[in-house]
Every structure is written in C-alpha cells, then in structure tokens.
Amino acid sequence: MSKIATLTEFITDQQILNPQATGDLTRILYDISVASKVVNKEINKAGLNDMTGDVGQENIQGESVKKLDLYANNVFIDALEGGGQCAAIASEENEEIIILDGLNSSKGKYLLCMDPLDGSSNIDVNISVGTIFSVLKRKDPNKDVSEDEFFVAGNQQVAAGYVIYGSSTMLVYTTGNGVNGFTLDPSIGEFYLSHPNMKTPAKGEIFSINEANEKIMPLGVQKYAKFCHELDQDGKRTHTARFMGSLVADFHRNLLKGGIYIYPNTNAAPTGRLRLMYECSPLAWIIEEAGGKASDGKIRILDIVPTNIHQRAPLFIGSMEMMEKAEKFMTES
Question: Do 251 and 315 meet the contact criterion of CB atoms below 8 Å apart?
Fold first, then answer.
C-alpha cells in the first residue's frame, strides 16, 4: 500500500515544487493545523469542561459570544504569534486588527483573516462547526502594520481554508493549485491527505437556504427557491433542501455532493449577514478552485474590495450550473 501523506509532508512537498517559496506560508499553515487540533480536543469534551453556552458579552457583530468562541480565538492568535510569520490578524471576535508582537512577528510577511469558530451557537446541540481562514501577503513587511493592508480583493489571497469539526475533523485548503482535504487521525494527532484534488459536481441537487426568511428575501431568491421545489414530469422532486445553520457544515456537504448555499441580503440585514473577508472570500476561492462559483448574486465575491474588516455581503456559492440558474433569477428580478 502506498504511503499516505501527512499534512506536514504535503505542504512541504508543495513548497519544494515552488522555487519561489520561502517556507513562511508553510509555517502559517502548520500553525493553523496545530491550533485546530487544540480546538478540536476542547470541542470534543465541551460538555464535560463547562465550555458550552455564552460568556455574557457580545462581539462587534452584536452576537452573543460563546465560551468556545473566545477559547478558539485565543488559541489561533497564540499559535500564529508564536510562529512569527504573521504580522496581524483580523478576527470576527475582535473589533480591531490584532497586531502580533511575538518573535519576528513585526516583520511577518503575512496577514490572517479568520472566523475562529463559525457556527458556535450549534455547539450545545452537537452540530458540526468550523474554523475559516484567509491568508494575505503584505506588500512591505518592513512597514508598521495598518488596517488598510487588509483591504484587498479576495483574488489577492495566497491561502484559504477551513476546518470542520464533525463526525471526523477535516482541514481543507487551497493555495491556488487545487483543493485538498486532510482528515485528522485523533489516535496520533495527525492530519492525513484523504481528499486529494477535490472537485465539486457541476450539477448539484442540494439547495441550502434559510426558508424561514423567504418573505424578506430578494424576489430573485424567492423565485429560485420556488424553482427548486418544482417536481419533474413523473411527480418526483428535482432538488433536496438541506440547511443546518452552520456555514462550514453546509458548504462542506455541498462541496462534496453538489449543491448551492444562499445567504442573501434581507430586510433585516440589507447588506447581508456573512462577513466578506473571513467567511465569504476564503470559501469563494475554495469553490472556484474546485470548479464551482461564488458571487453576491451578481458580482463575483473575489472581485469585491472590502473597506471594513467586518464588512458583510450576500453569499451565493456552489455548483456551477446551480449558481448560473440562481444568478439568472437575480438578474431577471
């Protein structure tokens, strides 16, 4: 049986294949993987360690902060600070960017955007949650870090990925050469390549929309949802509805099986609910590398330049044919 590559071996091999690589990005990906293992361990025993529920405060988004939100945020910050390759972090849990002062961090070549624990409200009921991250390269590491450095379009990312903490824990990432997934073997604490060169089906059947918001969604989304409910000539359903309320979990399922995830703007959230820099953009790059598409309903997500680290955006993301159909409804409406 051929040897199965570990995450460390895989990213090292990728570095060797790129003569321009310095190893700094490799170290960041390694630090992220280490932090995710620590977070995974705490998630698995959250009910025993009094790590469920709220801490009694709200984040900059106006959302209740969960105990595991703070824990995961601190773990990832500590891991990246210790590595020294990352100069600053934009996190969902912090109002302003976090400038790292660890060994060599002030001269770090990279910036990190992250949602340390997406879907954390589902922890209490054992639904899969995740971490989403995006890595940007600084133009001038010799200058002091400024928030403006983060305000670049998603097509300027140098790495993007997510970790899903579910029945198994997986780390999925891209650096622009395809999408690869790694499954954690908890018995030895190592990620192994389990899903090489991931591709999403061009034609899917799953649509993930919070239909409780139907009446306050754009007309194009309402029409697309109605289209998905139509039966074929034999009276059988043409699509399957699946919505868990955990972005990483919904995205991961649709990536593997083929589908579309839509979280549009609504009357209650006129600019959308999801954050552009550390939710929409990294997942958009992953889906494009896997053969799919992502937009805000009309504009390609990766072409949108943010002006605020917590900027929100509508998100339409998934299999190519389903995306084109949904966007057609949006354009015609």
Answer: no
Closest Cα to residue 333, out of 224, 207, 209, 216? 224
| pLDDT-based confidence at residue 187 (cuts at 50, 70, 90) | very high
Report yes or no: 277 and 313 within 8 Å, Cβ to Cβ.
no
d(CA 252, CA 158): 21
What tokens does 222 get? 């309402």
Q: Parse the chain into domains and list their residue ranges.
A: 7-195, 206-332
CA 236/CA 147 separation, integer angstroms: 52
Residues 6+ apart with CB under 8 A from 53: 66, 67, 124
* Percent above pLDDT 90 for the chain: 81
**Record: fold of 206-332:** D-Maltodextrin-Binding Protein; domain 2 (3.40.190)
Q: Which residues of 184-197 are buried (b: 16+ CB within 10 A; e: fewer)?
A: beeeeebbeebeee
Report which residue type is found at 284: A
